[in-house]
Write a sequence for this structure.
């Protein structure tokens, strides 16, 4: 045990020496360190990378950026829609009350094979679509190789 001598005990005065139990403090410190290490290791697995499409300022107004074709994955109340800004649309209706994730996976895989250099997709959920359905669509897109997933509102289509 650790002790602290603060003097006293001379000439009839009461001794004020005290002992501090160090073992419980060391145990508490080790528990805190272990907890922080464990949570630091696993925090990357629960993270989903996405960015939000926000309007930005053009650095040079005379220079126009080249027009790129955007790829959208819209999640609606009736199913999925894969669309591009070039006018292509692929409708994937629901199977009864369930979203058809397998057909979406197949269509995204076909689209990815047609454009192997494309890594971006914009997920645009409609108002009223449940959150877990949007996350499921984002997971399917990431699983098929679209690493740059953006989240936008359904009004962008």
């Amino acid at each position: 045990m650790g002790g602290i001598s603060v003097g006293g005990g001379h000439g009839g005065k009461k001794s004020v020496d005290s002992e501090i139990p160090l073992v419980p403090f060391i145990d508490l410190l080790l528990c805190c360190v272990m907890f922080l290490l464990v949570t630091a290791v696993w925090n990357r697995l629960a993270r989903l990378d996405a960015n939000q499409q926000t309007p930005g300022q053009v650095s040079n107004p005379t220079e126009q950026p080249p027009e790129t074709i955007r790829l959208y994955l819209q999640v609606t109340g009736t199913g999925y829609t894969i669309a591009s800004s070039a006018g292509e649309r692929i409708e994937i209706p629901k199977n009864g009350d369930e979203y058809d994730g397998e057909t979406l996976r197949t269509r995204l895989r076909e689209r990815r094979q047609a454009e192997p250099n494309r890594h971006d997709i914009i997920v645009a959920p409609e108002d009223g679509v449940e959150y877990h359905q949007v996350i499921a669509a984002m997971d399917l897109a990431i699983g098929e190789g679209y690493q740059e997933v953006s989240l936008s509102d359904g009004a962008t289509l």
